Amino acid sequence: xxxxxxxxxxxxxxxxxxxxxxxxxxxxxxxxxxxxxxxxxxxxxxxxxxxxxxxxxxxxxxxxxxxxxxxxxxxxxxxxxxxxxxxxxxxxxxxxxxxxxxxxxxxxxxxxxxxxxxxxxxxxxxxxxxxxxxxxxxxxxxxxxxxxxxxxxxxxxxxxxxxxxxxxxxxxxxxxxxxxxxxxxxxxxxxxxxxxxxxxxxxxxxxxxxxxxxxxxxxxxxxxxxxxxxxxxxxxxxxxxxxxxxx
Length: 247
Known about the structure:
With 247 residues, the protein is mainly α.
């Protein structure tokens, strides 16, 4: 957290980028809703703006190229020195990334809330707004865990760029970052609900749009535990392979 706060230039740029994206995408969805009689897939124009503010905060707060960075550390050998620590490599890296993301998440959430309130009015509900805060923190945890699981492919193929490219597109579409999954075709919507990516963007957006569905928080917790287990398992396997190949 201290490192992120010390990087004032990057901190300001990321917040400005976030506000610009929310303003543009949120306005597009508002216009689309107004052109469709005021609602799209059960979301009103104001709800859609709040939805975008939450989903963008959940994703922009993170290092956009985390998978690529982890892959570079693995293929370049930097990960080998970290393996000498008497603690879990994944736990240390995840704690570091969560600390880096938390100041950005806080700033983006507050800035997005203020802008949304000015443009479209108060949040749809106070209870759902409180749940949004919890969902955003869980979304960050799920996202970081999943990115470590994807990045571990570099233990075998020495390049995680393809995994990074695929992961970003999955979060954008199936994760509901750019659009609520309710607007997806039926079969694709069903697939999206079964995958972990909805926990990284859609669920915070769903709460921010005014929907009070506590089971969604349990879904996030379940995916967080599962993704942590998967990341730990894949890294453990990759570390053993690295030790065998590299000595």
